[in-house]
């Protein structure tokens, strides 16, 4: 299995306890560059540093992804491999693109992720900016997804969003608590817990 582990925003003390445990347990640890290596060095000085170029050349990016996929896959097929990435592995990260390439070339490899402190929440702390109400986050592209917190009537909200072109819905209740529940698509309940988050994504061309 290959697990994408969030390493936080850049301070080694902001790694989660679970991140430290997985780094210690993994047969092999991979990181995308020296900044990420500096965060894991205390726990895994043997971590393998891979090349993920900062460039807009998509052909070169694809070549590097395929080369890295070929290096990672043998370790992920036979045991636990960890890919440590700055921030969170599901927020604007290289990990999702890497998984797509590995899945296409090595379908027997399974994937999982462990969250890390993202740049969004870290910014609010460093800048001392409390955030409340709705806010917009973008990497420069137009919005394709929306996240709603404290959702009490998820089915009704999803029905309303469907009229705006949203077609993919995921609701998580009481995340990381013993009663955690995950609902997808048309399985959304009429009512949900205060500790609920609804993810909505527009139809993709």
TrEMBL record:
Pathway per the UniProt entry: Cofactor biosynthesis; adenosylcobalamin biosynthesis
MF-aspect GO terms: methyltransferase activity
Any one of the GO BP annotations: methylation
One Pfam family recorded for the sequence: TP_methylase
Superkingdom in the source lineage: Archaea
Coiled coil regions in record: none
InterPro entries documented for this protein: 4pyrrol_Mease, 4pyrrol_Methylase_sf, 4pyrrole_Mease_sub1, 4pyrrole_Mease_sub2, CobI/CbiL, Uropor_MeTrfase_CS
Positions of the Tetrapyrrole methylase domain: 1-185
Keywords, ordered alphabetically: Cobalamin biosynthesis, Methyltransferase, S-adenosyl-L-methionine, Transferase
Family in the record: Belongs to the precorrin methyltransferase family.
PANTHER family: COBALT-PRECORRIN-2 C(20)-METHYLTRANSFERASE
Record-given protein name: Cobalt-factor II C(20)-methyltransferase
């Amino acid at each position: 299995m290959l697990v994408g582990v969030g390493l936080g925003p850049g301070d080694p003390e902001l790694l989660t306890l679970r991140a430290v445990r997985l780094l210690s347990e993994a047969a092999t640890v991979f990181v995308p560059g020296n900044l990420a290596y500096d965060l894991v060095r205390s726990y895994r000085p043997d971590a393998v540093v891979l090349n993920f170029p900062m460039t807009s050349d998509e052909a070169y990016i694809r070549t590097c992804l395929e080369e890295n996929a070929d290096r990672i896959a043998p370790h992920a097929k036979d045991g636990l491999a960890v890919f440590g990435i700055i921030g969170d592995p599901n927020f604007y990260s290289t990990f999702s693109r890497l998984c797509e390439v590995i899945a296409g070339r090595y379908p027997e490899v399974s994937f999982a992720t462990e969250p890390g402190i993202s740049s969004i929440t870290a910014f609010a702390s460093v800048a001392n900016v409390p955030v409340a109400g709705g806010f917009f986050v973008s990497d420069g592209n137009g919005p394709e997804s929306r996240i709603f917190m404290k959702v009490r009537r998820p089915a009704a909200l999803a029905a309303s969003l469907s009229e705006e072109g949203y077609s993919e819905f995921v609701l998580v209740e009481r995340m990381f608590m013993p009663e955690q529940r995950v609902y997808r698509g048309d399985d959304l309940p009429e009512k949900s817990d205060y500790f609920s988050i609804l993810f909505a994504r527009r139809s993709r061309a």
